Amino acid sequence: MGKKKKTKKEKKPFSPQEFGTYFKRYWQLYLLLFLPMVYFAIFKYVPMVYIQIAFKKYSLVQSVWEMPLAKNHGFEYFIKAFNNRDFWNALRNTVVLNLLDLVIGFPIPIIFAIMLNELRLQRFKKVVQTVAYMPHFLSWVIVSSIALQLFAPTNGLVNQLIQKLGGDTIPFLNEPTHWVFTYIFVGIWQSFGWNSIIYLAAIAGINNELYEAAEVDGAGRWDKIWHITLPGIRSTIVVLLIMNLGNILGSSFDRPFAFQNNTVMQYAEVLSTYVYTNGIKGLKFSFTTAIGLFQSVVGVIFLLISNKVAQKFGERGIW
Predict the structure, then answer these.
(1) Which of 118, 220, 237, 249 is least enclosed by beta carbons within 10 angstroms?
(2) pTM value?
(3) CATH class as words, domain 52-312
């Protein structure tokens, strides 16, 4: 006789009485959940109504529902964007800067978290953590001012030291290639300490018995890092990598805007500052809404693809 297949028990829905009992017991949790739901509904989902501005001719005196449809079946502003040389320049800069941030900056918090985890002097560890976290709480206006004092071409502290050592000054903020790497370096310095928190939390969740067993087997420090720590935080690394890939076309406004100057604008103009220049200052609301919608759609596509690839390699992904 063949073995009988086990069937999963179907969960019965709550009866009204059971639901009432359940809700009375956990109503505080639902109240806490209600507040962020209201926030997202008001500030995230309701404004999505205005996405349709991308397909309409904007008018200050008409509601979004009354505005006439743009030419080419509503795709007039998308066509204008794709035919605009400045848009493609901003798109290229956004992708290049974000990819450099990802390739150079993404591993740094992981390495830093592992190094902190290996420290045995707790007081020294706390001091290093505090010093590394502090730049995160500085605004980009302050950070760019510090960078200007350090890397200015003539009177910057770094160039003054180089000159005293007999070298030539380096145009950190005035030459495109040097500006890009200065921009990336300062961004990593500002964020790596804060970004390492989630990796430290993941490392703290690894069972200490694994390290003890490896030590008994004669494993050294590097062996434990490679065979226990890194596999233990792999799922966290994958999730954060997927989220970063989903934001490959997105960029904050304050960081590039604070570091821009006229000598490097060809490489410093990104989509967020391009939207500000044309949308806020140039009053081209439909045009820049179309660009913003394009960014969001491409970002979602990257997110879906990277999540699917992660699942193909055996990771859980985001969902």
Answers:
(1) 220
(2) 0.84
(3) mainly alpha
